[in-house]
Amino acid sequence: MDWYTERSGEILKRLNTDGIRGLSKKEASVRLLEYGPNRLLEKRGKSLVERFAEQLSDFMVLVLIGAAILSMLVSIWEGYADFLDSIIILAIVLLNATMGVVQEAKAQRAIASLQALSAPKTRVIRDGAEFVIPSDEVVPGDLLLFETGDAITADARIVESAALRVEESSLTGESRPVHKEADAKVVKNAPIGERRNMVFSGSVVVGGRCRAVVVLTGMGTEVGKIAELLDQSETPDTPLQKRLRRTGKTMGVFALLICSFIFLLGVINQTPIMDSFMLAVSLAVAAIPEGLPAIVTIVLALGVQRMARRGAIVRRLPAVETLGSATVICSDKTGTLTQNRMRVEMVEAVLPGSGGSQKLLLYGALCTNVRVTERGLAGDPTETAIVEAATGQGVNLRAALGQYPRRGEVPFDSGRKRMSTLHQGPEGAVLVVKGAPDVLLGLCTEVAGAASTVPMTEGKRREILAQNARMAERALRVIAVAYRGAGGNHPPACGRHPSEERNRGGRTRFAPTEEDERELVFLGLIAMQDPPRPEAREAVRVCKRAGILPVMITGDHAATAAAIARELGILSGSKRVISGQELDQLSEGELCKAVKTTAVFARVSPEHKSRVVRAFQANGEIVAMTGDGVNDAPALKIADIGCAMGKSGTDVARDASDMILTDDNFATIVAAVRAGRGIYQNMVKSVHFLLSCNVGEILTILLAILIGMPAPLLPIQLLWINLVTDSFPALALGAERPEADIMERPPVNPKSSMFAGGLGADILLQGLLIGGVSLWAFFLGIQAGDYTTGRAFAFSVLALSQLFHAFGVRSRESLLQVGIFSNGKMILAFLFCGFLQVVVIGHPVLAGMFGVEPLSFEEWRTVLMLAPIPLVVVELTKVLRGREPRRMTTLRSE
Fold first, then answer.
1. Strand, helix or coil at 885?
2. What is the Rg, in whole angstroms, of the alpha carbon atoms belonging to the chain?
């Protein structure tokens, strides 16, 4: 059916929908079963076989599989036909792949749960009440409400609209917004871009608002028709994951070269080919950190789940690392640094007496989109505060709207900084405008008087601006109210130019435009207070200690912004305030210099926000930016970390962001930075642990070869350690709490090497300790028995010393300061892996499979004396060198 050719009333009848009350909840449930969820067909997930094959396709794993197959072939060529080693290697590789599939599924579930948290919601009217529901529960016939910033979630026929503009580039390719009207006439077979009485799934409201009835959902929508051309993007790897993949591949190539060299050296020395080959395979297994990529991915996924529980939903995984590198946080004021709980403190009407205040508040209340519900007032906090103040002056909003029914609207826009509504009053049409005082004063030519209006003089204008400044200096947010028409001055021109839009009763509605916002009569100022959040001051202090510069970017008056910024500690020392007007006068180069000394940007537009972010980035800063409106989307995309508001934010802002703050709180941003640093720190700890263990294994083999000894460890023993006993402690490191001083350290430099700050040296030295003690155990075992006993000693000491070593990697602080039992998962990993190692050595059948023999009680005592040595040395080193100074010498803001 061509829904766009029918009148809205006819469509409501066809869909059996009440144009005011919408569907009933019961009927909506029936239709959801009939039509199915409102979602596009999702990309087919990978099958179990495909995921298993993907685990086996990793370069490092392929090297191991190749080594096992070659081992079989060499065994056959040598006439041994002994495939046990090869079979065990392949079995452990398959076990690792199985664990990888299970852990990957766990990580995917973690990411999916985050996506569910940030899934779009839709405002719908059912049973005459307004609800916010998940968009996939929308059904044909639902009555939806859309306003600026909302994403359209289904194809719908507009029933009622006000200055509606929709961006449909995802469907039409046209980037310019399309003006939409409820009763626009559209011819049959008109292209999508010309169907001006319809809104389509996948498009975005960039201005105005509307009420629309759903006609198509899911795959039936216009975007659903081309769904087969769409593809869901994969979750991107973080920079650390990419570096680790490159590191692993480099280590694999290096291992192949070394193995080839060792094998050729053995052949030249006339060592049996099988022995030379198995020695080379041992080195390959020791050099390759098989489980590293999977473990880091799991640590990352579990970390972002914890962040979500604390109110920060990460939408793009690379943002976690970027959070740890953030050097500047650009935050909005209202609702983020303040409580967004407005209360009118002062009413300054130009008309004397209570009558002047009442008219000012009446007109202010008319020019709002506040809704009166059973639970009270619902709407924007600023507008709600005005209506509450008007109610206190005896104004009844419902009665007022009955006396002054609305005929049209020009919605608020952050660029215009004002809003207008057109009403039909007892004395004729009246246009009410409210907004920023400095903006409205430029549009006013008269001032309300006792008997009639009087001209606006320059003296009166300066007096009002001075009053506004005094209010702003008290950290009050000031709104001006003016009007045109209603017997006091020229009636609005829009009253003579009806648009095609009609209300539900069939009466003509009028569409005011910006051209009508002129020759206004000034009524007065309404000042309200939005107190700072109690936790914001402490969050600002933590920022500065962490080397992060907090910056306020707001559309409010400079004096208001400065007062709040001083109270919170953002504006201090030599920092200054720059207004949007001053910012317009600065070149890009001048702005780059200015941002170094500026803590508050006031009276800014969304375009200014993008300029400020770029200026900070040009100075080498890593910028986190908050935003909630449609026009904030460009700045959120430009910023290194875009943080959208979960409560007040628009769908457009959320889609453009890297992270969503569910409570719109500045303190949550700071907590997310702390968590991001902690997650990155834990990933580095896992890398530190696994690579130092690998280095220990390599050195154990190489040192034995250099002194002419046989390999102390067999390939299957090394593979067991790498894929089983190492994996669980590495995962447990991902559960470490952020270190106490993590927010007293400078941000992570994204350009620095992962092995910077002494990590590379620590890995080599600790690897040398692990390798040295394992080789020592090999010698002691040989003295106690033979090479088999020596390998049992080396195998046990290497596995257990790495389990002990995991405790030393937990922190740069002494383990006694951190607390041995403060990470329960690490204790469980140690006990579980230790138990597995004892079973492998102690059970005669398993010991034979791993090329060792069970150890006696005395031999186990020797093993347990040697295994903790690397941990003891590392802990003594921490104590002797003292804790490295990390506290910032100066606050970032000074």
1. coil
2. 35
Q: Are 331 and 551 in contact (CB under 8 A)?
A: yes
Residue written as token pair 């529960």: 137
What CA–CA distance (Å, rounded) separates 71 from 36? 56
Spatial separation of the C-alpha atoms in residues 887 and 894, rounded to whole Å? 16
- Fill in the amino acid letter for 528: M
Question: Would you state the pLDDT for residue 282?
Answer: 65
How far is the CA of 844 from the CAs of 717, 838, 850, in angstroms?
15, 11, 10
Which helix (H) or strand (E) segment holds residue 313: the answer is strand 312-314
Question: What mean pLDDT comes out for the span 210-223?
Answer: 90
What is the C-alpha to C-alpha distance for residues 314 and 69, in angstroms, rounded to an integer? 43
Q: Rounded to two decimals, what is the model's pTM?
A: 0.73
Which element (helix H / strand E) includes 262? helix 239-268
How many Cβ atoms from other residues are within 10 Å of residue 824's Cβ? 10
Give the separation between CA 347 and CA 889, rounded to whole angstroms.
47
699, 663 in Cβ contact below 8 A?
A: no
φ/ψ (deg, to 5) at 215? -115, -30
The full DSSP string for 707-735 is TTPPPSS-HHHHHHIIIIITHHHHHHHTT
Residue bearing the bigger pLDDT, 614 or 627: 614
Supply the residues annotated as catalytic.
332
516 closest CA partner among 479, 491, 551, 486:
491
DSSP-assigned letter for residue 721: I
Q: What percent of the residues of the chain are helix, what percent strand, and what percent coil, each to the nearest 5?
A: 50, 20, 30
Q: What is the DSSP string of 194-227?
A: G-TTEE-TT-EEEEEEEEEEEEE-GGGSHHHHTG
Rounded to whole angstroms, what are the CA distances from 191 to 1, 135, 522? 15, 26, 46
Buried (b) or exposed (e) across 673-710, using 16+ Cβ within 10 A?
bbbbbbbbbbbbbbbbbbbbbbbbbbbbbbbbbeeebe
The two beta strands, 549-553 and 371-373, are unpaired
**Phi–psi pair at 427, nearest 5 degrees:** -100, 10
CA 694 to mean position of chain CA atoms: 34
Q: For the chain, what is the mean pLDDT?
A: 83
Q: Which of 277, 260, 266, 256 is nearest to 74 (CA)?
A: 277
Please report the DSSP string for 606-669 in residue order: HHHHHHHHHHHHHTT--EEEEE-SGGGHHHHHHSSEEEEESSS--HHHHHH-SEEETT--HHHH
Strand partners, 454: 447
Residue 709 phi/psi, 5-degree rounding, is -95, 155
Burial (CB count within 10 angstroms: exposed 0-12, middle 13-18, buried 19+), residue 93: buried
Q: Residue with structure tokens 């080594």?
A: 67
Q: What is the pLDDT of residues 735-745, one digit of tens each?
A: 888 888 899 88
Cα 372 from Cα 493, distance rounded (Å): 30
pLDDT in the model for residue 772: 95
Reply yes or no on whether the pLDDT at 502 is more than 50.
Answer: no
pLDDT tens for 762-811 read 999 999 999 999 999 999 999 988 999 999 999 999 999 999 999 999 99
- pLDDT-based confidence at residue 709 (cuts at 50, 70, 90): confident
223's tokens? 């975007």
- Measured in degrees and rounded to the nearest 5, phi and psi for residue 343 equal -140, 125
- Type of residue at 603: R
What is the residue-wise DSSP string for 81-102? ---HHHHHHHHHHHHHHHHHHH
